[in-house]
Amino acid sequence: MKNGKALVEVEAVSKYYGVDKQKVAALADIKLEVYPGDFMTLSGPSGSGKTTLLNLIGALDRQDEGDIRILGRSLSRLNFDEMTEIRRHSIGFIFQSYNLIPVMTVLENAAFVLRLQNVPAEAAHKQALEALAAVGLQGMEKRFPNQLSGGQQQRVAVARAIAARPALLLADEPTANLDSKNAEELLETMEHLNREHGVTFVFSTHDPRVMQRAQRIIHMKDGRILEQTQRQVG
Questions:
Q1: In which domain, by residue range, is 167 found?
Q2: Nearest-5° angle of CA 199, CA 209, CA 38?
Q3: Which of 73, 150, 151, 229 has most Cβ atoms within 10 angstroms of its Cβ?
């Protein structure tokens, strides 16, 4: 749907749960591409397969049929350690439960992935500060997660995800635990990161607030893509 090389290529992917006669297709023959600068959602009711697809794109699970390529690398050909490396260096994750480490400060949480990447302490500190500034959390670096609101904790999760400057950022129901005000503020922050910094986002959501802002909506049901909607932006 865009010019240029896709970040993610999903080719005829299927995923099954159960065995033999009890086997159920969570995903069936999925074909999808994600391009640099996308701000897109996987949308559908519970059980539609959107989170399963997000997990496959994020190299958190393996498909049973087909292939997924991230930055041209086939995930089917990667072993466990190589899957871990591509997650660590190319993909950022935002979860609805925040997944912050309670004994770490805001700054330490934001720098966590960078330290896993063995980025030198000074550089990690700088990148984490820049990420926190990008999500509007200047001055809160020394606070702990339990001293923050839900919306602020989710912003720390976003900062942690973008601090490592991944090629792709995956967000699973990021607004699910937020009230309307905090959800809107978080979405505005993500839109800003997309437009001004070129961060590529793929959401899994059924939240209409997210879908209203998406440039592309992938409508899913019963493990299949029903249609794609393109929205003009700007």
A1: 37-63+80-230
A2: 25
A3: 151
